[in-house]
Automatic annotation (TrEMBL):
PANTHER family in UniProt: HD_PDEASE DOMAIN-CONTAINING PROTEIN (PTHR33594:SF1), SUPERFAMILY HYDROLASE, PUTATIVE (AFU_ORTHOLOGUE AFUA_1G03035)-RELATED (PTHR33594)
Organism listed in the record: Chryseobacterium edaphi
Protein name (Swiss-Prot/TrEMBL): HD domain-containing protein
Native organism taxonomy: Bacteria, Pseudomonadati, Bacteroidota, Flavobacteriia, Flavobacteriales
Signal sequence annotation: none
SMART domains: HDc (SM00471)
UniProt xrefs under Gene3D superfamilies: 1.20.58.1910, HD-domain/PDEase-like (1.10.472.50)
CDD domains given in the database record: HDc
Domain HD span(s) in chain numbering: 24-127
PROSITE patterns given in the database record: HD (PS51831)
Amino acid sequence: MSNTIQNTVQFVKEKLEGAEAGHDWFHIERVWKLSKKIAKTENCNLEVVELSALLHDIADPKFHDGDETLALKISRDFLEGENVDEEIIQQVLFVIQNISFKNRGEAPKDLPIELKIVQDADRIDAIGAIGVARTFNFGGFKNNLMYHPDLKPQLNMSKEEYKKSNGTTINHFYEKLLLLKDLMNTEEGKKIAKERHNFMLNFLDQFYKEWNVD
């Protein structure tokens, strides 16, 4: 592991100490590992992939009053302090700016492979057993209802509607999580996502059985 990557790991650990459990260092670590796993199957710049994975949630806008510029500033300041080449910095910032689900309508059509890899890794960590756990953790963090039979999922929300949404945790599966399998960019990402997607479908079946006391 290079000194730059080691220093980035330490920086992110310190920066995210005490963060909400779905967006803490352990989330970053899983996305970093998944990114490296996917990167093995693609022709890419591994330094850009690793730095982007490590810094992608350094200041998640939903915990910073919706500010989408803060993560870019923090990341640039850190990377410049590490004497990272400007070209690499720009590529990392591009990934951070365009990775999120809510920004998918604004992202350029021709995405670099490094963004595709880290985006797949981040989305994979939002599904499966970990995804279920993170979703309920965040729903509890926001004091949202787990489920309400009369509240239906809001599909095709705009970016602003999505950011303001305080729907039920179960609705979030239909508004985001179950859509992610078909948004994967890489073959490796698609393979991993398929298994995790099926786990969520089984979870939802069991949830409704128990909710309805079948």
